[in-house]
Every structure is written in C-alpha cells, then in structure tokens.
Amino acid sequence: MPTRHDTAYDVLDSRPITTREAPALTVTVTDVTGRRIDERVGGVEGPRAARGHDRMRHPPARRAQPGARHRPAGAAVVVRAVGEVDAATAPVLAAGLRTGRAAARPPWPLVVDLTGLRFLSAAGLTALAATLRRCDEHRVPLRVVAARRDVLRPLRLTGLDALLDIRATLAEALGPGAGPR
C-alpha cells in the first residue's frame, strides 16, 4: 500500500505543505488452520488494547471458557504482520506477539510471519527480542519468517539473526522441524 500524501496550505504564506499519513500495520494471530485466536488469551491483552481503546468503556474480557474459540491441541500459532513497524506501530506488533505467546503451548512453535513487512525499526526489533525471551522462559520455540532485505538487514546488523530461528517461507517454518524436537 503506497503512502498517501495530502497537500495542505500554510495560512500565512499560502504555500503548499505536504503532510505524510502515518504508516499502517496490521497484525493477526491465528492457528495453523487460519482460525483467529482471541485478542485476550490467558489474561494477556491483544492488539485492540494497543490501539488505545478506553478501558472504562471497554472492560477486560473474561477468560475464554473451555471449548470456546480455542485452537486445537498440538498446533503452532502464527502471528502475521503486514505494513511498517516503527515507533508508532510497534505497540501493535508487541501486543500481537504477546497474544501469540500466550496462546502457544510447548513444544509447538510460535511462528512470526514478517514477509508482509516493508520496514522494521529498532522498536520492532525490541518487541521481537522481548518475545524471544518470553518464549525461552516458557520453552516455546520461536520461528521468524522473513525474506525481504528490509527486514533481514536490521536483524543481521543487530545480531538478532544469530538468536532467532529465521526461515524463508511460512511453509518451511510450519513444515518438518516445526513440531516438537
């Protein structure tokens, strides 16, 4: 999606001013069958909370009842990010990663699909590093799917590529070796 530019005019000079619309980021959390996972799993708030919804008007959801909108046992959780991750959109990515981590159960992996990203900032790298730490604490394998230079380069420059299990395609991340080791 190209960035939209709007033209405004300075009231004092009548010269055109170009303003840039903020980059967009969409994060979805699904199981391997494509069914969405609730935005609140195990007491962890998901992407909706990061968008600034008022907690007074929108009280926290209750925990899901057994058998209600849960993923099948023995399946990976996939977090897909599409758009650009910068300081403004990193909280949305971080919330999606927290939701995915809360839904993932060892020994099945949490797969973070970054193939739809056009830009990954330091704030996004921080969210990935925090998720890696939480996954290690809970013994959940973390796999990152990235193929674009725009995403791989920051991972390489920071050395995060040495810590993460990076795969080229989602099929590779979910295929053999995606299950228990």
From TrEMBL:
The superkingdom listed in its UniProt entry is: Bacteria
Q: Which GO terms describe its molecular function?
A: anti-sigma factor antagonist activity
Q: Which residues cross the membrane?
A: none
The record's Gene3D superfamilies line, in alphabetical order, gives: STAS domain
Note the InterPro entries from the entry: Anti-sigma_ant, STAS_dom, STAS_dom_sf
Record domain STAS: where = 77-177
Q: Which SUPFAM superfamilies match?
A: SpoIIaa-like (SSF52091)
List every stretch annotated Disordered: 44-69
**Pfam family example for this protein?**
STAS
Q: Which PANTHER family match?
A: ANTI-SIGMA FACTOR ANTAGONIST TM_1081-RELATED, ANTI-SIGMA FACTOR ANTAGONIST TM_1081-RELATED-RELATED
- Family, similarity comment: Belongs to the anti-sigma-factor antagonist family.
What name is this protein filed under?
Anti-sigma factor antagonist
Native organism is Saccharothrix algeriensis
